[in-house]
Amino acid sequence: MAMTFDEFGRPFIILREQEQKTRLRGLDAQKANIAAGKAVARILRTSLGPKGMDKMLQSPDGEVTITNDGATILEQMDVDNQIAKLMVELSRSQDYEIGDGTTGVVVMAGALLEHAQKLLERGIHPIRIAEGYEMASRVAVDHLERISHKFEFSATNVESLIQTCMTTLSSKIVNRCKRSLAEIAVKAVLAVADLERKDVNLDLIKVEGKVGGKLEDTELIYGIVVDKDMSHPQMPKHIEDAKIAILTCPFEPPKPKAKHKVDIDTVEKFQTLREQEQKYFDDMVQKCKKVAEDVGATLVICQWGFDDEANHLLMHRDLPAVRWVGGVELELIAIATVSNDICVFCVRWENCAKISRVDTREAGQGNKMMIEETKRSLHDALCVARNLIRNNSIVYGGGSAEISCSIAVDAAADKYPGVEQYAIRAFADALDAVPMALAENSGLQPIETLSAVKSQQIKENNSGCGIDCNDVGTNDMREQNVFETLIGKQQQILLSTQVVKMILKIDDVISPSEF
Ligand code: ADP
């Protein structure tokens, strides 16, 4: 610590914080960062593909999650390292923008880092590597566009959408029911999609889980599920042509608070007070029942609770009510009923009838962990269906698109005379990491399998040849119906390149030292 004076003579203190910090510079910084990034990618590598392993994660409060969804694994892992956090962000960005491919994007970034390290050791400047990677990613993204196919679908012909959703689900724990879950996802997305504007608002789809039952019981419900009972057991459980009043305020008689100090010394006074309270509440009920001249509510849905007395009075005034309904559900009910003021509403989900274009689904399995994983898998499938509605181009999966890009990028490298050529070649090698991981996770010899498939792609001029993970007998992904969305794959390449470039450009790491 030192005291000094500025140009106006004012004293200030300089804390020699630097002494308490560790600092890594230059190649050491890059190597440490690459090692951290690679460590994260190594964890996810074994989870990639239909034969990928699951991870079991325990939160500090003892809750256990079993998943193979890259974004969820990274989210729940308590990472301290800042570079590792960048990888977590990478997976999250892929999840946010595309919803699928969260494991693949991290595996790709890990491979790019690994190859960058080799180039750094050979003395190539990190900026040249970053530039080479950028050029290569553009070649790969353009190549993906070239090898993509348009998937034609209509409201009645949705088989192609279902097949693509099934590819996503095939690598999840729920793959036993992938066909039915994919159908549910596609129907749900189509129900809320605006096909003309090619837009889907996934907020209108709610995935609900309920303990008990089997995965096969999962069903699509056109309506809104409010898993609540009527506030009074004697209120009617089925209301046709209901007119719903949605209340976001508490709904109960006003209560005299002790701090207002009401002196009640006779029974009459008490009775008057009680009657006044009742009258006040009755007025509230009447207001609900006669919102306008002819439109009166026949059902109240309240965001807050109401006490026993209010409940009793509602029952007597023939105004059925549901209390403690969540804000999201209220919003959905409001959206669903705004265009048609008459709707059928029933509280128990078994009897829920069609209201409008808001869907809710029930994913059941005896186990809470399984329900959570089912919800995550359905989310991925919903995102894939949404992406296809936005852009109906697909590429083949099973690593075939990566292999094809690798061949294209490798060929493009020769055109660049500069040092970037090495980085472009390294990018082509990194693209092989995805098919190699798929092969390794399926118990195949990674290098042999990859080289066989690569030469087959060149020989047959077929960019659909990939890794036969499920031992079907053919590695033509077109025959196996393994599809991925073009935008998802392009995004994987773009995002992983951006993160790796960012990591390579860091040459000074200052962090607080441990005492
Ligand atoms: P991500 O979280 O990145 O989607 P997944 O574990 O879902 O990771 O694995 C996706 C990868 O598995 C993709 O490369 C996809 O093409 C591949 N894949 C999915 N199903 C099959 C299959 N039946 N055969 C071969 N590869 C498949």
TrEMBL record:
Name of the protein in question: T-complex protein 1 subunit epsilon
Organism domain of life: Eukaryota
GO cellular component annotations of the record: chaperonin-containing T-complex
PROSITE patterns noted in UniProt: TCP1_1, TCP1_2, TCP1_3
InterPro entries: Chap_CCT_epsi (IPR012718), Chaperone_TCP-1 (IPR017998), Chaperonin_TCP-1_CS (IPR002194), Cpn60/GroEL/TCP-1 (IPR002423), GroEL-like_apical_dom_sf (IPR027409), GROEL-like_equatorial_sf (IPR027413), TCP-1-like_intermed_sf (IPR027410)
Organism: Salvia splendens (Scarlet sage)
Gene3D superfamilies cross-referenced by the UniProt entry: GroEL, GroEL-like equatorial domain, TCP-1-like chaperonin intermediate domain
Role summary: Molecular chaperone; assists the folding of proteins upon ATP hydrolysis. Known to play a role, in vitro, in the folding of actin and tubulin.
Keywords of the record: ATP-binding, Chaperone, Cytoplasm, Nucleotide-binding
Family according to the record: Belongs to the TCP-1 chaperonin family.
Pfam families, per database record: Cpn60_TCP1 (PF00118)
Single GO molecular function: ATP-dependent protein folding chaperone
SUPFAM superfamilies: GroEL apical domain-like, GroEL equatorial domain-like, GroEL-intermediate domain like
Subunit structure, as described in the record: Heterooligomeric complex of about 850 to 900 kDa that forms two stacked rings, 12 to 16 nm in diameter.
